Amino acid sequence: MVTDVHAHVTVDSAAQLARAKAAGVDRTVLLSTRVHPERARTLDAVRAEFARLTAVIGGADAAPDEVRAAMGEVLRALEAHPGATLGFASLPSLLPDERLGDWFEPYLSRPDIVGIGEITPPPGQAARIEPVLALSADHGGVPILVHGFAPNTLDDLRTYAALAARYPSVPLIVGALGGFHALELVELAAARPNLHIDLSSALQVFAVAAAAREVPEQCLFGSNTPYGDVVAARHTAEAAIADPSVRTLVLEGNFQRILGD
User: Fold this and answer.
1) Which of 56, 122, 187, 231 could lock onto 23 through a cystine, CB 3.0 to 4.6 A?
2) Contact, 211 vs 197, CB < 8 A?
3) pLDDT tens for residues 170-190?
């Protein structure tokens, strides 16, 4: 079952999943978002959405009500498209550690919510995600997807790898192929089997090829919709990965193994 592990729910989930079907994707993992650049119709509207995105990835605080509203979009899409979708649960940025369990319980108790993410710590503060890894470990090791592109830094990626070593039962997925630090991420993953790489938003095809060659069982297909296109992402993966058995791992097998499918 081909799975897109990194897609933010859009304002038109039916059209989003039709595009996934055109890419030969059977199942899409939907992540919440407070930003919807796909609805912008003018340059000023695009700028406004990307200004919000810059604040989010820069570590702007997310209040519980904002995150609940964003998760509501995910839940409605999951209910409208059963079988074709799974979801990850997000969290407010300032939630005290002792409240993490209460926050995640109603989400993780659902069979269609299978992980946590996308978590976006402020640049230079990746260590802040450790309580979420501890919670995941206590819940049998549900996968966690973390932001891997700028403005997060190479030191943040190194921190993710160190946390993965501390919590070996937790599949930790670094999003967007580590952004500008793709090759360093591949090296980190080679030393840490539970550190996984989402291949979405790759800046170079050779980086996808290098990841799939060096750590084939740790690479996961993703589109980063709406910032990437799922059809283009599928073409990139197939262009970069010549070995059909590795391609199958990346598109299907690795995430199925993480979920225990």
Assistant:
1) 231
2) yes
3) 999 999 999 999 999 999 999
